[in-house]
Records
---
Amino acid sequence: MNIVTYLLNLICSGVSAYLAAYLIRDPLTRPNALAEAELAESGSVPYFQALSARAAAEGDAWLAEKLASHAADEERHGKIFAHALKQHIGEKWEIPKRNIFYTLYLQEYSLASLQPHTIDWSVFMGSMYILELDASKEIARMANVLPESDRLSANLKKGLSSIAKDEVRHAAYLYEAMQRRMSQDTVDRIINEWRTRQIQAYLTIAMDIIQGVERQAMPQNGALYSWV
Ligand SMILES: [Fe+2]
Ligand SMILES: [Fe+2]
């Protein structure tokens, strides 16, 4: 990673962690943040299950097992967010919009090439590693800012802390999965590539906001996660 990418990474991850924390702490934006998280977590479950079946069919029992437990974790995360969202019944929140970030992050990859039975393993592992690694930090930050004073926030705080631990584990097995299949040089190159793609996606979003450009989320979002 060159120094510019490194600095941009610091800024982007700082901003997104700050935003996540802000959205979960404010009672007005919390239901929306929960709804978005619930859809993203539950929506990824069938994808990981299908990938697990593929890994098993290809004879990689280690990866099949990791992906199956990843699917189970994401299902549990979805339930934690759904449960927290239920506490906000009667309050106003909107059905979240599809997230433009994934469209930009996965630019140049067709919907067909991102399906669990077609995706290149290195594309899956590299792109997902970056997402899981950052999710672990963002969710830990969300947990940190929640107060323990009321029961609802305290419960959510506990749930988020356990989710953050799972995300750390997900990032770790994805890293190991890359190391099992590729040389360390290749692993470093792939991680660098996805980090750069992520930063470019954030920068494009920032420029769009400044310039008032409205971009449509594309269907390739639907491959990695059925919803986002
Ligand atoms: Fe998760
Ligand atoms: Fe995860």
---
Amino acid sequence: MDLAVSPRVAPQNAATVLRVERVSKNYGARRVLNEVSFTLAAGERVALVGPSGCGKTTLLNCLGGVDRADSGSIRLNDAALEKLSSDELATLRRERIGTIFQFFHLLPTLTAFENVELPMQLLNVPTRERRTRGLELLERVKLTQRAEAFPGQLSGGEMQRVAIARALAHRPELILADEPTGNLDSVNGENILDLLAELSTELKIAMLMVTHSAEAARICHRSLHMRDGVIVKETLGA
Ligand SMILES: Nc1ncnc2c1ncn2[C@@H]1O[C@H](COP(=O)(O)OP(=O)(O)O)[C@@H](O)[C@H]1O
Ligand SMILES: [Mg+2]
């Protein structure tokens, strides 16, 4: 990466990647998301912060096409998610979105390399290209030596680095991360945040990250503060 460019400098004149307009969602009689609106630009990292149960994961699930909003509009570049069928939504998720979770969600029976390769396999990327890209990504997250290790043989920090490589393997337009450091000690957590900042700047990927405000301050350009399904304020940094 170009070290002259600080990962904290907000991208200038970057194209809008994600446009969320007045998204609402109910579970039964309960309104979990209430008219949520914001945009994300290429290379921009935005933190989503707020107390447990305020709707952060539900919002990520709607943006990632795992769940559907009841009203409002979610546009990922040219695609309006509310207009897609379930199959089209699943395809969009596989092709265009990368997801990172608190508990890594690696497949235990696949090696680190095979976990990174999997999203490319699902998209029928040719074997040779899968190998090149997979090894490049493992090198980028400093895990070349652990390519043949299984998740059970890796530390938490290493597992999350595999998960980051996997999330980037299919060159997504948007990364959704749900408490990516929530299961790591502070040193490993900071390393993961630095890595996410570097990679999203370098690859110009938009990233929405559920996190605690203190850690988000370091690497995010903006923070959205959520309470009871509403974005109550937006701040620079955290
Ligand atoms: N599948 C579901 N069915 C019913 N209620 C749900 C479901 N998923 C989440 N909820 C409720 O929606 C609210 C928001 O949950 P969530 O988005 O997981 O919050 P957060 O990630 O901010 O902790 C919570 O009250 C939760 O209990
Ligand atoms: Mg959550």
---
Amino acid sequence: MNELNKDILITGCSSGIGLCVATQLRKRGYRVLATARQSKDVNNLIASGFESFQLDLNNSESIKKAFHDIMLVTNGKLYGLFNNGAYAQPGAVEDLSRETLRAQFETNLFGWLELTNLAIPVMRKQGFGRIIHNSSILGMIPLKFRGAYVATKFALEGLASTQRIELADTDIKICLIEPGPITSRIRENSLIAFEKNINYKNSVFSSQYEHVLERLKTRGPAMKGTLPPEAVLKRVIHALENPRPKIRYYVTAPTYWIGFLRRVLPYRLMDWLLIKSSKGGKG
Ligand SMILES: NC(=O)c1ccc[n+]([C@@H]2O[C@H](COP(=O)([O-])OP(=O)(O)OC[C@H]3O[C@@H](n4cnc5c(N)ncnc54)[C@H](OP(=O)(O)O)[C@@H]3O)[C@@H](O)[C@H]2O)c1
């Protein structure tokens, strides 16, 4: 399909979902503008044959420069933006400092918004575009010790949903992907953020944090129902190619269950279920 020779900008292509989606979309015929936070990963991507650009979502200058350079190579066109680069800061809400929460929002929300707001005028001018936000099952429900990450994904759901309504009279489609557990480097990166930003030895939750550390150090599938990143790819392809893309794409069985249960269960029952499933921080 020749129409697939379209420009797609992806953030966070060094590992996990971003790398998988970038690799497979390129094989499918898309022109992938693969971005990564660190120059070593940009070099690896270039060595693998990608057009790659350094883009650190925490840094406005980096976002602007990457977008500017990408527009130069695409002649000012952009069919799709896959907002993906993020990390998950673990820790109880009462153990989050202002700086730690702010840092989580800088990466997972403010950087995404800034990049999206650069892409929209380009899409408005050309008359079409697809913006796909990689949200999470944790954009639908909370989970113990995930408050910072949950807050960014709930906020993303709010911004994206408002934007979808604001763009309803255009041909720019906004989609949210809601993955449950997916194999990636997310736990390795969470471990770094936990050890760096949470004073876990002096917390009232210190004994429960032992389980958090154990979980973050475990390699292999995080839990039953974990899927490979190709499960997300399938939804991204639908969001890019279907004339009527979905508003939300559930990925993994836990997301389908939660999507259903949160609509039918009373709040207290839902809380009970979430407390049970967190298994004192082990889940
Ligand atoms: N895996 C899951 O179970 C799961 C479930 C639901 C949703 N998600 C979502 O999926 C997306 C991708 O995560 P993943 O699971 O593939 O995890 P991952 O393997 O850890 O990949 C995260 C990517 O985000 C990048 N990133 C982090 N901070 C960044 C910054 N400041 N600027 C630019 N890029 C940055 C990382 O780059 P570095 O290598 O440089 O750190 C990496 O490329 C995230 O939005 C996450 O919330 C994942």
---
Amino acid sequence: MRDDNGAGRKPVTGDAVVIGAGMAGLAAARVLADRFARVTVLDRDTLPAGAESRRGVPQGAHPHALLAVGRTALEKLFPGLTDELVESGARWIDVVRDAIVWQLDGHRVRADSGIEVLCMSRPLLESCVRRRLLTMPNVEVRADTAVAGLAGQAGERVTGVELADGGKLPADLVVDASGRGSRSDSWLRDLGFPAAPESVITIRMHYTTRLVRGRFDRLGGPGVLVAAESPPGQRRYGAAFPVEGDGWFVTLGGYHGDRAPTDPEGFQRFADELPESSIAELLRGTEPLSDPVGYSFPTSRRRHFERIRLVPAGYVAVGDALCSFNPVYGHGMTVAALEAITLGECLDRSDSTDAQLARDFYRRSAGLIAVAWDMAASADFAYSGTTGPRPRGLAVTHWYQRRVVRATHVSAEVAEAILRVQHLIEPATILLRPTMVAKVLRAARQARLARDAQVRG
Ligand SMILES: Cc1cc2nc3c(=O)[nH]c(=O)nc-3n(C[C@H](O)[C@H](O)[C@H](O)COP(=O)(O)OP(=O)(O)OC[C@H]3O[C@@H](n4cnc5c(N)ncnc54)[C@H](O)[C@@H]3O)c2cc1C
């Protein structure tokens, strides 16, 4: 019998190389460790011993929400991880009860939902995962080792990697987890493989984030997520996530070129202009631990290896190298963890690391990715200026989405349902069940009437 971590499976042989020790690379390496004799993870960065930001992952200075499903997947891969994170200061929140969310001119109702997520910084999560991976005797993580290309037989298979220092490393399977900036398109082209077609959605989004420390007493608890979104037609948002050490990542931003300044006064002013005051109050009542730092995210980008016929054997792309999602929805690390588990399942079904393994992996991953991609895409196209492949039926989707959001102002049941979808716990179709549609429309109408009465006086 096999278990989720690979005990009891067929004998392990051969070498696997993983390019990149980010979240996708670490999760993939854990799965490969049960299925290959040796696993070598290469990263061009100097990897810190503890929970510190690093140059190769600049997004680590910005909030990283780990969805409930992602935490469960990582716990499966690294048993005991959750307890270690909590001991290191990560904070549990119930995403409905502990969240102040302002959207479409109203607050979301707050109630127990049972959807609990763990909040911490990306460097803390990554360092705990890396430490756990390093306890595996057949895994080596080599820092300061940049990959400069792929070795292989033209048009047939990848047989290893070429290092920037001129060295080579042979492998039966190369996993490209080198992130959004992956150069494997050109590396594969050099080996005679066609580039995978891409879907690109242009959102021109900007994050500006500041780390602050302190209690936010208005919310009556230590772990609370706050988010405010400007009314439709505008393109701004703000969010604050609790992290270890009584810290908060406060992020302000906008779509299509609208951005919060990085000077402290301008940052506070941008927060003051949001339609809900919680974030501005939180900034005023806490101690800054960092200057505001910016990050531009021009496009969401997805590579469709599942659509090409000449798929390279001995190579798969995972994580952001396969699909880089709009970060606002917090899907990246969760999908990367699910892809790692999928890769393990595909390896178990396959006798070799041939092209069929890669095809099988890309076909199954495409299903996982599509759920998150479609959800983000339909929300992104609510902003004028968004370009790229438009999901079908957008007008109806947006009409219904607005009613779902309004319904969450009064209905805990609808709030829980939408969060279950956003956290990839349930498919979006649960919101289309006739009983749910009726509840949404009734609650949205009730919210609208309550709001009109409030405006009248
Ligand atoms: C601003 C921002 C906020 C985000 N917020 C969230 C969030 O809230 N929740 C969430 O789940 N996800 C979030 N994400 C996405 C998340 O960061 C990624 O999806 C996730 O980390 C998986 O990335 P990865 O491991 O594929 O790539 P990365 O984390 O980018 O890691 C790639 C690694 O590859 C290494 N590397 C690159 N090139 C080479 C090379 N040639 N040789 C050797 N090593 C190389 C790099 O040094 C790096 O360590 C956010 C992203 C951004 C940009």
